[in-house]
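Researcher: I've been going back and forth with a colleague about how DHA2 family metal-tetracycline-proton antiporter-like MFS transporter might be arranged in three dimensions. Neither of us has a model we trust, so I'd like an independent prediction. The organism is Paenibacillus peoriae, in case that matters for your notes. Sequence below.
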Amino acid sequence: MKNKIILFCLLSTVLLGVMNSFFFNLALVPIAKDLNISISFSSWFILGYSIMVTVGSIIYSKLAESIQLKKLYLFALVIFVLFSILGFFMDHFYLLVLSRMAQGVGGAAFISLTMVAIIDVLDRALLPIGLAFISFAMALGSGLGPLLSGIILSITDWHMLFLFMSCAIIFIPILYFTFPENKVENKTPFDWLGTFYLLLCILFLLCALNINFLFIVFCSLFSLVFIRHINTVSYPIIDKKIFNNTIFVRITSLSFLLFFLLGANVFLLSYIFSYTFNPIQSGILFFISALIGGFASIGIGKNMTNKNVKKFYRIGLYIFFIGYLISIFNSKIGIVYILTSVCCFIAFSVVQVALNNLLDLELKESKKISIGVYNLCNFIGMSIGVALFSKLVIIFNINICFIFLLATVITKGFMSNNINTAKGN
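Model: Here is an independent structure prediction for DHA2 family metal-tetracycline-proton antiporter-like MFS transporter. You can compare it with whatever you and your colleague have in mind.
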């Protein structure tokens, strides 16, 4: 019972963290008006959070090797709640962005440390349902975030978006008294310089995707510096040995493409729905699609075994294929795009549950940092999906964009052929 309570709290924070990633998308225009700034400046409310969540996924996973998981999670929750409350009272642009980045510092722990806890700390009997519920929380959060933010903005102003997230405070005392102590590995020096290089890589990558593509030059430069760094220091932030595991690299690449599809789906369908429905109606459609996908992940998770995991993975790809195919031949009929939305969320949930299970089967050592790299690639994939299709939708019509997504699904199918579910390397 105790483990189930812990699992419920951890998955609830995953839900809040994912919701928070989408929470301020609808608020950019009112924020820009209230603070008398441009839309590009207000986009830092999203960009700042994304940067900290992306880099933080690695940092928390690395720290989990030498610090109790309970301490890390409570620290993350306190930071998340504190700056959610402070952000509510702020009216200065830079302090508000700082509050959003601090929210990201806390929120970065939610997915990575929950995966670590489920795979490495909690009762193994909860593993299948735990991994399934991670997918449920992520699918539901991506649909519930825009809906709730739209409702809140229609009732009150955008400051309430900060305060709403402070509801995570209820999980602090529960986890303090219930979260178990776990064995930690020998303490090693933390690679702060490598973390700084990685932060700059992610910062310039996201700036290239969202502001000006010329930032990719700085991203490439610091990527080379970072690669040289992890090859020369004794205790790098990311141990290069994990990349010798070719199956882990393949699973991570497949997950990267999956989150690339998620980012592209949310952007494209939001773009399409904006011409047919009002923001509340669009949010309800996303929420219903995400809810159906979430329940699909639970059903799949209960029935998934080591033997049938690839079968479910292929089923997820087939659902993606059907959803994109009907959109390619669609003549702007709203109900068809709604069906595409439902198919995409179901497919995302099924494929993610399968990949999370494949990851657990493969990881024998360096679990924590491997999970960190896995989640880092997921966040980057989603950011690239949103940024790339925000440009493609201007150049091509919607049908062509769905052809690109269909090609990505076919690529995922070919890449998964050589994954062995029975053993690792």
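Researcher: What would you highlight for our discussion?
Model: I'd start with this: The longest helix spans residues 127-155. After that, consider the following. The radius of gyration is 20 Å.
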